[in-house]
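User: Here's a structure from my thesis project, written as structure tokens. My advisor, Dr. K., wants to see whether a designed sequence matches the one we expressed. Can you design one independently, without my sequence as a hint?
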């Protein structure tokens, strides 16, 4: 077009004078302007883009117009870093149209950072504002996503598989965005995941729905606590001091600390998720905790009313129930993972085979939900590293399942994941409920190992830098695929 303008100026009838010359020139310029408008349409003002899940605006970090600056959500404030213009080329421009929303380094994988960059017309700067409120990236066919369904100021915005959740829906007004016509993973509170306890509390239902919503999209970080080394926050403090983050899930154990209830409540109120197991001592003797759990029991006697084993079994279940009830009274929910490492030959509950194990599981489920009135539990069925279908209590007693291992060199553990999924089916979330080395998030994504959470074991499993180097912790806890406590939605 500049060449056309030059032609008119150099070779046109510049010596003509009067109305005719002016009219001819005006008509020519008008025609050229019309062509210009067709080829490069003027940006159409959109203004702010407000997230349906957070009611906060799509925002350039720090209001900084430098290329490579990331985007986040922030309180709507009308500043230039929140004023976006869309044009027919599919660009989302900001800072008076001098910068474009850009998939960093032309990335097309889920988790690719979104930044601003000098507008260049490339495919990684093209987006479609769809009728369901989502913003689709042309090159990757991924959606603009508030990571981890976060709602707090400063939550990072990146690209992720389109799923119709509120953290992927945007509008100018900040009101409810249109409901998507197809949703593969509905938002918490409206999902189709039905808890196995029909009387589950609202908090338990929200927690279960959230787990379903993240399955295949992110992995929740978890850390098992110890209570005997530097206080109960020893591991949490270690992670926070080295990464600036806290795990989404705090792992606890009734056998290690029979007064976990108050810490579970505090963790829940701080925005985290408590997950509780129990190294329960064999019911035919008096020793509880880890050492007692390694002894041999008589499961028939433990399940027969009137026996001393039955009395001890109920006493131990009652003690754990009292702690879980504290969380329920405070409005909290718990991932409950009893009788863990199912199928192993080391804990008494698995030594007599799958049939006896299933009897124990179902007895506890009925006792807790019907007799003790515990309805704030999301029931996690936890296999060992070699899952066996004969130890599965069935869909009516399990909200989601998992497996564990302390092996591996930060690999995604795909064979164990696949074996576990083959037992539970393709829809139920699957957890890595205990681990030593933390799997590499990049390998988790590239391999398709869709673990919904990991839970690193305590003390030297997390603090030994040969097992989990600090550089790895920093990578994991600041990775867009990994959910930390500050990125959890409000489940309360």
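Assistant: Designed independently from the structure alone:
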């Amino acid at each position: 077009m500049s060449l056309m303008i030059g032609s008119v100026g150099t070779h046109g009838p510049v010596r003509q004078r009067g109305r005719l010359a002016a009219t001819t020139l005006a008509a020519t310029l008008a025609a050229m302007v019309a062509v210009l408008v067709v080829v490069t349409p003027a940006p159409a003002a959109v203004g702010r883009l407000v997230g349906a899940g957070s009611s906060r605006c799509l925002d350039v970090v720090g209001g900084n117009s430098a290329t490579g600056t990331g985007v986040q959500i922030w309180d709507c404030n009308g500043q230039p870093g929140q004023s976006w213009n869309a044009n027919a080329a599919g660009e989302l421009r900001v800072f008076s149209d001098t910068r474009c929303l850009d998939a960093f380094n032309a990335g097309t994988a889920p988790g690719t950072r979104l930044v601003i960059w000098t507008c260049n017309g490339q495919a990684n700067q093209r987006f479609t504002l769809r009728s369901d409120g989502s913003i689709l990236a042309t090159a990757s066919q991924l959606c603009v996503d508030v990571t981890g369904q976060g709602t707090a100021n400063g939550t990072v915005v990146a690209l992720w598989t389109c799923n119709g959740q509120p953290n992927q829906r945007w509008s100018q007004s900040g009101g409810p965005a249109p409901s998507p016509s197809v949703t593969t993973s509905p938002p918490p509170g409206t999902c189709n995941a039905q808890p196995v306890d029909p009387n589950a509390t609202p908090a338990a239902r929200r927690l279960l729905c959230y787990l379903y919503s993240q399955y295949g999209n992110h992995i929740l970080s978890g850390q098992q606590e110890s209570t005997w080394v530097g206080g109960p926050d020893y591991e949490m403090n270690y992670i926070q001091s080295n990464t600036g983050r806290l795990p989404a899930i705090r792992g606890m154990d009734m056998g290690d600390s029979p007064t976990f209830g108050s810490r579970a409540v505090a963790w829940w109120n701080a925005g985290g998720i408590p997950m509780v197991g129990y190294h329960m001592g064999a019911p035919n003797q008096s020793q509880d905790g880890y050492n007692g759990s390694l002894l041999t029991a008589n499961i028939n006697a433990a399940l027969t009313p009137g026996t001393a084993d039955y009395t001890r079994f109920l006493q131990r279940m009652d003690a754990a129930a009292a702690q879980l009830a504290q969380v329920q009274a405070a409005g909290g929910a718990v991932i409950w993972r009893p009788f863990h490492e199912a199928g192993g030959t080391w804990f008494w509950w698995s030594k007599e085979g799958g049939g006896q194990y299933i009897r124990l599981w179902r007895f506890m489920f009925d006792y807790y939900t019907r007799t003790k009135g515990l309805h704030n539990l999301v029931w996690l069925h936890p296999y060992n590293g070699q899952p066996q279908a004969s130890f599965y209590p069935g869909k009516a007693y399990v909200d989601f399942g998992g497996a564990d291992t302390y092996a591996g060199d930060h690999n995604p553990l795909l064979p164990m994941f696949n074996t576990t999924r083959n037992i539970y089916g393709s829809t139920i979330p699957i957890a890595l409920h205990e681990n030593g080395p933390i799997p590499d998030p990049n390998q988790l994504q590239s391999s398709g190992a869709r673990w919904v959470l990991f839970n690193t074991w305590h003390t030297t499993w997390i603090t030994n830098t040969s097992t989990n180097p600090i550089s790895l912790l920093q990578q994991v806890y600041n990775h867009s695929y990994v959910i930390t406590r500050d990125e959890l939605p409000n489940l309360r």
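When you compare it with your expressed construct, this may help: Confidence is low (pLDDT under 50) at residues 1-45, 175-189.
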